[in-house]
Q: What sequence folds into this?
């Protein structure tokens, strides 16, 4: 048993840390927060040049073919710097779905371009119901002759305006069992009838509503089996949930660091507030939560990486880290006091990220159920 | 990163599993009400289980499993991992094993004790003949251990010890006190005390029971009146007692019943599946499912901390702040476990041992009370947080 990262992983961690420190300053984060599509093509290209888009992509499609452990290491660093990039959307929602369910031609067409940084992907899953269980998915794709026609509205599609392709989950047949009858379609974002509008969020991340209106698709755009997409989707939700959690671990680490530094320099009653036990105990809790959060993420990542059953572990990581991230940023606000409640200070940027990472990529209902089922309930 | 056990370690787990199923006293689980992370329901502190516990220790010793973490020259395998695996499986089954003799006393004697001490005590600890209790706390020295008042005064080849200890878990069922006493009252606090072994049967030692809120006699108050102890029983250097006590803390933190938390979770899951409330199985009740999932999360956190500390020690590193985090996490987990358990059991959570209607023989109701002890015993949660903040995060001491 060994909890430590190996040398390759440590090198990745170090190089990501150094790169992002230089290339992803807070000014960039702030500037991109209030605009659409909200990411920097220049930064994206540099990230691609480091091989990050292909970390999880097999070698035959130009990727590095590493595992989720390395992906988690990288995501923690991206969370630490609040890196604004459609990275999780592209590498997990898009590329991993293709890796798992795409046919050879689809993989050859798309994955090398993703690795090169030339394509951005996302997935349209959630609908007005807000949940991501199969019973919450109603958008229909109807077969008309040789083609499929999509009609309906998807919500909370991340990074949709930046995306070149949208993987849309649609109902292709009405089966009494909701798990059956779901199909994934690969839709070019520029297709006629695809209307993307931003959802204004307090988290300032890039969420969109997509209205699919008589969108005609060829059979070649189907990824995986018709009516049989749920197992893939379920795995993708687990993975993307874990990815969000990994990012939040980095956010927590950053918040802990900045709050400890502040507690040492802020003087009240003639001494640093970090010398008061009330403050010390807040920070001790935050630290223990951060270490625990990282352990749960790495354990789930290791399970995914080694092909072990991982639904329960990813659920555990997503639920715990989601809550712990919000708790950490909330606690940091207590310690910073009024200055942390300003737009001028950076703390709110971190808090917004922990909030979105908790509420999306599988809501807590979904991930709690993954845990409960794993326990045999 | 590899979070699995090796094949050899898995084989050891299975062997211990088979052993414990074979050797556990008959009907054991119905006799005890042990609660994970609590200090008030530990079976080996109960007088009525002494014979059973000694017999079980001897069987463990025959398997050579009582000193796995000790260095090879003292009959061990120098494997904290193996010791932790044995402890993990035994504690899952709530077996009458463990104790501070093997977890604190032996490692400290090995590190700083004289050859004579090693010869006299290590064999007796290995086979369970020598039990120890920790004589640290005093009426006015709890978290502030440096305020202790019990004294040891030199007299020829002996020390004469006077004073009072309290919250002395297991003093009534063990043979020796592992005592911290003042040897230089004028020195700065951290250089004023010495660690010394005091046989319980020495004249002048008086042990009086204190009954805890679970109704058990687990701890005591102990009076030392002119107790004469030979100098050879001093452990480590004179006036280095605080240092020597700290040495073993890292070991102590790993002797917790690491497997017993998951055992309770498994039992609660089973209970939820088998019991119907308001017309449907508890396991189909959404709040119950969430509560159990939350416990699974907390237990997973604890277990990763636990095995992480084990791995550190296996590599020869010393967990310091990690040991504090572990103590904090597992005792707070004990409280959460108990609170969730009574929530799920509802009114049945009230039932005490002795009630024929009590689920789990009353373990949950008693456990709820016992869980109070975890965060206040052996270094309170608040002390652990202060250690984490100052030693770990570098915040200034107040």
A:
């Amino acid at each position: 048993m060994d909890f430590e990262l190996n040398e390759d992983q440590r090198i990745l961690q170090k190089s990501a840390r150094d790169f992002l420190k230089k290339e992803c300053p807070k000014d960039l984060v702030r500037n991109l927060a209030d605009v659409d599509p909200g990411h920097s093509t220049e930064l994206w290209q540099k990230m691609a040049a480091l091989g990050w888009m292909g970390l999880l992509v097999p070698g035959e499609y130009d990727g590095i073919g590493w595992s989720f452990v390395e992906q988690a290491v990288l995501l923690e660093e991206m969370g630490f710097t609040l890196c604004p990039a459609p990275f999780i959307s592209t590498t997990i929602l898009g590329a991993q779905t293709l890796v798992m369910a795409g046919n050879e031609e689809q993989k050859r067409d798309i994955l090398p371009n993703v690795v090169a940084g030339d394509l951005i992907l996302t997935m349209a899953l959630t609908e007005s119901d807000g949940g991501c269980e199969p019973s919450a998915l109603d958008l229909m794709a109807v077969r008309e002759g040789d083609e499929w026609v999509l009609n309906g509205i998807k919500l909370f599609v991340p990074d949709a305006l930046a995306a070149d392709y949208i993987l849309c989950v649609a109902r292709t047949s009405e089966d009494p069992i909701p798990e059956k009858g779901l199909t994934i379609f690969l839709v070019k974002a520029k297709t006629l009838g695809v209307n993307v509008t931003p959802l204004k969020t307090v988290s300032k991340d890039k969420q969109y509503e997509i209205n699919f209106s008589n969108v005609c698709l060829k059979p070649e755009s189907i990824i995986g089996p018709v009516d049989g997409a749920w197992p893939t989707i379920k795995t993708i939700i687990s993975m993307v949930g874990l990815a969000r959690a990994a990012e939040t671990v980095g956010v927590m680490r950053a918040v802990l660091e900045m709050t400890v530094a502040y507690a040492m320099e802020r003087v009240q009653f003639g001494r640093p507030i970090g010398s008061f036990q009330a403050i010390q105990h807040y920070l001790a809790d935050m630290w223990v939560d951060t270490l625990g959060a990282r352990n749960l993420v790495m354990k789930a990542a290791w399970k995914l990486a080694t092909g072990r059953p991982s639904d329960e572990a990813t659920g555990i990581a997503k639920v715990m880290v989601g809550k712990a991230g919000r708790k950490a940023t909330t606690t940091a606000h207590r310690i910073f006091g009024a200055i942390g409640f300003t737009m001028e200070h950076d703390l709110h940027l971190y808090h917004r990220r922990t909030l979105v990472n908790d509420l999306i990529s599988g809501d807590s209902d979904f991930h709690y159920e993954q845990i409960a089922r794993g326990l045999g309930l | 990163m590899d979070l699995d056990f090796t094949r050899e370690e898995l084989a050891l787990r299975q062997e211990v599993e088979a052993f414990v199923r074979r050797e556990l006293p008959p009907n054991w689980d119905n006799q005890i009400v042990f609660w994970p992370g609590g200090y008030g329901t530990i079976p080996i502190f109960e007088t009525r289980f002494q014979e059973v516990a000694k017999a079980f220790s001897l069987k463990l010793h025959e398997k050579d499993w009582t000193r796995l973490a000790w260095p090879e020259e003292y009959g061990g395998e120098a494997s904290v991992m193996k010791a932790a695996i044995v402890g993990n499986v035994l504690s899952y089954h709530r077996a009458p094993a463990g104790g501070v003799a093997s977890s604190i006393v032996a490692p400290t004697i090995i590190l700083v004790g004289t050859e004579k001490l090693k010869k006299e005590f290590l064999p007796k600890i290995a086979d369970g003949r020598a039990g120890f209790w920790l004589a640290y706390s005093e009426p006015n020295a709890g978290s502030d251990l440096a305020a202790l008042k019990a004294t040891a005064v030199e007299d020829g080849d002996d020390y004469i010890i006077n004073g009072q200890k309290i919250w002395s878990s297991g003093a009534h069922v063990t043979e020796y006190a592992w005592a911290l006493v003042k040897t230089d009252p004028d020195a700065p606090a951290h250089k004023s005390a010495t660690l010394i072994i005091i046989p319980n049967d020495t004249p002048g030692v008086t042990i009086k029971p204190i009954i805890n809120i679970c109704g058990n006699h687990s701890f005591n108050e102990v009076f030392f009146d002119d107790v004469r102890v030979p100098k050879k029983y001093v452990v480590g250097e004179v006036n280095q007692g605080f240092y020597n006590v700290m040495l073993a803390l890292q070991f102590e933190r790993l002797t917790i019943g690491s497997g017993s938390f998951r055992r309770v979770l498994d039992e609660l899951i089973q209970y939820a599946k088998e019991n119907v409330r308001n017309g449907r199985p508890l396991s189909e009740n959404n709040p119950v499912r969430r509560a159990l999932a939350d416990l699974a999360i907390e237990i997973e956190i604890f277990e990763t901390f636990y095995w992480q500390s084990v791995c550190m020690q296996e590599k020869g590193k010393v967990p310091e702040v990690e040991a504090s985090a572990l103590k904090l996490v597992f005792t707070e987990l004990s409280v959460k476990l108990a609170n969730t358990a009574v929530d799920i059991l509802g009114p049945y959570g009230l039932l005490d041992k002795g009630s024929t209607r009590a689920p789990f023989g009353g373990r949950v109701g008693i456990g709820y009370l016992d869980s109070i002890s975890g965060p206040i015993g052996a270094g309170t949660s608040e002390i652990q947080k202060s250690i984490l903040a100052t030693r770990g995060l570098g915040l200034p001491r107040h």
